[in-house]
What does this fold into?
Amino acid sequence: MKKSNKLLLGGFLAVLLLTISIHVTLYAKYKRGDYTIYHEEDELPRNSLQSFPHIRAVSIQNVADAIIQFSDVAQVKKDEDNGLQYQQTGDSLTITGPPPGEHHDIRYNILLMLPYNAKISVNNSSLRFKKNTKAADSSLELMLRKSAIMFNEGFRVERMTILASDSSAALFRGITKLGSLNVGLSNSSFEYVGGELGQLAIVTDSLSRISLPSKQLLKAKISTTQ
It folds into this structure.
């Protein structure tokens, strides 16, 4: 091989190795949480948000494909024509969409910021929970009826309870981290793909479906009701 070709090949390999090294380093930092994926909604100006202070319970009805992001206080975008109505009564917030059959004016991917440790009731709705970085001492209680919820990769919480009924579904996709999870199923489904899960207890009926990796299935406490 000519000396010029050797130099070109050596330079190419050096650039390739440097590129791989940078990607590996950045990926490692991302997995440790040093870097996070940028989301435009994370940079919303404070004056563009409507706040609902001191909320401890949230009721969501007839809301299609909303994105849930946890915050220190319940917030939504101001003046956003998304077909939803918001009503605060004391420490409770009700979020209502149009009745079934009138969804043609609804916007999808609506961002709802809800407080940590809130009790959330979901009826005839579908929600996607974003990555949650505040896991310590956090808890979440979800009551589902004719609804579907999905937790994306990176979601973390210390304690969670899910009570699902009337053909509801709860899906954990990607690597999630949960300290303890209690699930109650009535004619509903629960699927956990993978991640770190401390304790898992499931109470189910014969009409419900459970999908778990073998590792989680072996240590799960599962009981059946009539």
